[in-house]
Design brief:
By secondary structure, the protein is an alpha/beta fold. The protein is built from six helices and six strands, in the order αβααβββββααα.
Length: 175
């Protein structure tokens, strides 16, 4: 099992779900700007690669299959040019995120019909239902902020993207 600092012993929510800031699940190594992908599957492959960066103990094929299966249930595009592919992974005991801006934007079957420019992929432990929902809600709030989205869309440096995400998260989360 992949270890994380000060998480519940089993990786379960255990009735207590602390707020998880993006800086806790994201690293500069898992952020990229101007990612190119010829299809949704290729994009999910690239996001899987990012999710595995600096994370040991995960099987690439299993992670990719989890993201593909979730996407088959329905598009994870949330509108406003953002997609949040996500899934639960049994071998994981803490949340892991990856972020990319796309160049060019890609059709993602979004309800608003807009092509996706930004993708935040999320993996959580299989039993972390509450944490999963709270992180997704946090991401939805972050990406509903027009200023944050515009700031991210205009950035072509991965390190700068990371800092804008973390700063945007801190400024849009009550607290």
């Amino acid at each position: 099992m992949i270890q994380a600092e000060q998480r519940p012993e089993s990786g379960a929510d255990n009735g207590v779900t602390p707020d998880i800031a993006l800086k806790d699940i994201l690293s500069t190594a898992r952020v990229t700007a101007g990612l190119r992908a010829s299809s949704k599957k290729k994009l999910l492959e690239r996001m899987t690669d990012l999710l595995l960066e600096g994370t040991s103990g995960l099987n690439e094929n299993i992670v990719l299959q989890i993201l593909i299966e979730r996407e088959r249930l329905g598009s994870t595009a949330i509108g406003k040019r953002v997609a949040l592919p996500h899934g639960r992974v049994p071998e994981l005991d803490h949340a892991v995120g990856a972020f990319a801006t796309l160049e060019p934007p890609m059709d993602f079957d979004a309800a608003d019909g807009e092509p996706v420019k930004m993708v935040f992929a999320l993996l959580v432990p299989a039993e972390a239902t509450e944490a999963h929902l709270r992180i997704l809600a946090r991401l939805a709030a972050l990406f509903s902020n027009d200023a944050v989205r515009e700031s991210l869309a205009d950035t072509m440096d991965a390190s700068e993207l990371y800092h804008r995400l973390v700063d945007g998260d801190a400024s849009t989360t009550p607290g």
